[in-house]
Amino acid sequence: MTTKIVPTKAHPVVAMDVARAAGVSQKTVSRVVNGDPHVSHEVRERVTRAIVTLGYRPNRAARNLVLGRSRTIGVLSVGSTDFGPSSLVLAAEGAIRSARYAMSVINTFEDQPETITDSLRALVDQGVDGIVVNEPVGAFTLAAGALGDLPVLSLSGSYGISTSEIVADADQASGARSATEHLVGLGHRTVHHIAGPANWRSSTLRLEGWRSSIRAAGVPEPAVVHGDWTARSGYELGTRLAVDPEVTAVFVANDQMAIGLMRAFAEAGRDVPGEVSVVGFDDVPEAAYLSRALTTVRQDLAYLATFGVGMLIDAIENPRRQDRRENVPVELVIRETTAAPPLRR
């Protein structure tokens, strides 16, 4: 019969108590707590029952010391309230907590690349088991492979700073192609493009997807203009495009810029989609509730970040596996801001 041991300040329940109650060695208790697959089912049940009966709580710090892990994941992200970056980081944090890992979060500023590199080094110095990074590609001044085999999850493309890198990304180029092909298929003579910042990989891939569709269709290729992901930049660029009567279709690299663009067209007296068709990217929550619901490319950022964190934790706990990469499909959502050009009607 198991003797009930009540933990007190004088006598907290320790592994030796569990070993005595289960009739095993203290080493066997440690193997069960650490998930050793070579412990028999019968012994594991006995030890587990003793742990529950005695109310034993393993010392996490000691367990991590034995395993050589801190059970902490660093999160490094550009400090932004933009839908894409903020949604990715929020979902990543939720997935990390659900996996019972602690977090060390550092927000950086896109216009201060030296702080990005310093922040990354600070996370490494903290002894984190892995790092989630959502920064512009090229933001670091670190040499290739500088972090050795420390698992690094990139939500923005390959950084090359770790030999155990996990890249999880939406299929940006495919989404841009779908948007452009949709507009060309409606009969527009060409499709203009408002790209995001040139140093963001997502912006580059969306631009490349647009360009490949334009060239495949054999239509004129307009000059690309770059915004900064904000509605304000979309509005400012929209005021310039609105005065050109040849502009009848615009693919915009994100929804916020598309919303600003449509405001500029409205002020210029150009109806969307009567005179100009507009497609965005992201499918922000408000896109479906504008006065004209926005046609856009939907990417499931919550799934993307959660899936990526799952791959990161797998890399931490199974370090022999390397080079994990995943492209998550996207979907064109056709709503009310696209139609055939005026003359076709």
Write a concise synopsis of the structure shown.
The chain is 41% helix and 16% strand.
Shape type = elongated
**Radius of gyration from the CA trace?**
26 Å
Question: Describe the biggest sheet?
Answer: 6 strands, parallel
The rounded distance between the terminal residues' Cα atoms is 87 Å
Helix content: 40-55%
Please tally the β strands and state the result. 12
| Helix count, DSSP H or I runs of 4 or more residues | 11
Range of strand content:
15-25%
Oligomer: single chain
Strand-pairing-aware structural class: alpha/beta
Arrangement of strands in the largest sheet: 2-1-3-4-5-11
Order of helices and strands: HHHHEHEHEEEHEHEHEHEEHEE
Overall mean pLDDT stands at 85
Unreliable parts:
1-10, 60-66
Topology:
Blueprint: H1 15-22, H2 26-33, H3 41-54, H4 60-67, E1 72-78, H5 83-98, E2 102-108, H6 113-125, E3 130-134, E4 152-154, E5 165-170, H7 172-185, E6 192-195, H8 201-217, E7 225-226, H9 231-242, E8 249-252, H10 255-267, E9 277-282, E10 295-298, H11 301-317, E11 324-328, E12 331-333
Parallel strand pairs: 1-2, 1-3, 3-4, 4-5, 5-11, 6-7, 6-8, 8-9, 9-10
Antiparallel strand pairs: 10-12
Helix pairs in contact: 1-2, 1-3, 5-11, 7-8, 9-10
